[in-house]
Amino acid sequence: MATTDITHDSLARIIAANRRTDVVMASIGILVLMVAGTLLGAVFIDLLASGWERLVNPDFYTNFPSRRPAQAGIISAVVGTSLVMLVTAVIAVPLGVAAGLYLEEYAAKNWLTDLIEINVSNLAGVPSIIYGLLALGLFVYGFGTGETILTAGLTLALLILPVIIVATREAVRSIPQDLREAAYGLGADKWQTVRLYVLPAARPGILTGVIVGLARAIGEAAPVITIGALTFIAFLPPAPLQIESPFINFDWLTSPFTVMPIQMFNWVSRPQAEFHINAAATGVVLMVMTLAMNALAIYIRLRLRRLQR
Amino acid sequence: MQRQLNTLMNEQFDDIPAPLGEASPATELRAEVRNLDFWYGDTQALKGVNLRVADRKVTAMIGPSGCGKSTLLRCFNRMHDLYPGNSYGGEIRLFPEDRNLIEMDPGLVRLRIGMVFQKPNPFPKSIFENVAAGLRVRGINAKKPLDERVEQALQGAALWDEVKDRLQESAYGLSGGQQQRLCIARALAPQPDILLLDEPTSALDPIATAKIEDLLTKLHKSVTVIIVTHNMQQAARISNYTAYMHMGKLVEYGVTDDLFTAPREQMTSDYITGRFG
Description:
A: mainly alpha; MetI-like fold; B: Rossmann fold; 6-stranded mixed sheet
């Protein structure tokens, strides 16, 4: 029998070979997944075990930093991180989504748009400390916004803008042309088509990008140190909400602050071992905050999908 | 104006018997394609097409793949304007106001001329919102007129009885045939002057196809229909007039029964007898 004949046996051999390849690839995949999962789990469990005695103490969450490790808490870092993330999200999400939409739906497809797109993608890979230096020169000295929550929010917003822009573009691009033609065919103009049909359909993808961006921002220490965040702060910014009219104030924007990664870094670099316990506990809280943000995004995405399908 | 129209009509429709056994009054003209050229970039896809579209009749366009029938259809609502590099020559005049739609604002053209596509493309929204979409685009947002016109359109598309209890459910839960009728309802709701259908049944099974054909034969009493189909039997069954296209040119145009029983052109004859295409 010539080897070029297609017979039942020759086909069966091909199937068997394909099946072996599948098993090998699946094994490699599971192995890699296990390495990654185990590492993450090990880090988390190690932090949890190291920081346990502080994590179970309610004072840890309500106290300010202190010279005495047993009394030091993370309240100022938690509040600082929350407010900075709020500013970051409020600035980066609308800007990033608008820029992504413009590039994908409105901009003429020419070399200039291509150049901008390549640059935006590259910006996502620029080291975060560069953004810190930029912000120090531009915001702190140039605009005189000082070493404040506003500056930190702006800096981290710059940092994650490319991520959100790229994610928005990908999400918008993946919307089938059918859907746009259906909308245009009804007489909808561009903005109606984008607002009523393209944007809602792209929302899950955009949301993923927003979360990836915010999760990156929440863990950044370098750019925030560069713009001059404090490492020891014993008071909270003014509350954004108040009982008296006008019920809302923006004084907190110009308040000095610290964030979780800086607090952690500060404690890690102390010689006393007790502070290292605090650092580990802070790490756990930071990871939980990030995971909570991801969980929220998944929840919103599932909700949106249920509404759409 | 009316006399001018009748003159235009007489040239081509004079010797035409009342189509499909209807006691048809004098047929009026709804649109006329005059010497239309169309280019995708440097490629000419339509070459000097002339075609008259009778008011409240079904006009079918048939021809082999790539003959330009879909391209011609998409000229009617300026879909080509969505993509760069396309250009038109010639005219498509809309009656009774006698305006060239190639020179009108494309958005305005699409507000007047509805379209149903080859693949059902409902929006990822509720059944109600799908049908209401065209009305909302036209600024109709009050509940009562929306409710009324959505029901009217769904009844017009023979879908009302199947969906009236699930209007708030997602349109993606409907079958392919139901989705396509939903798209027809969506296009009908704003009461377009002309309804364009681009191979509307090519993605559907025979039963769903039969339902849509049945619907189309009823529709043309209230709306002018232009349908592109690769299915000659379909054109023969549902249309009053048929145009046969080949290589971007209109080869033959006439009353459907005549074109299928006694084609004037050899090419038409070859195509409808299945010798090529």
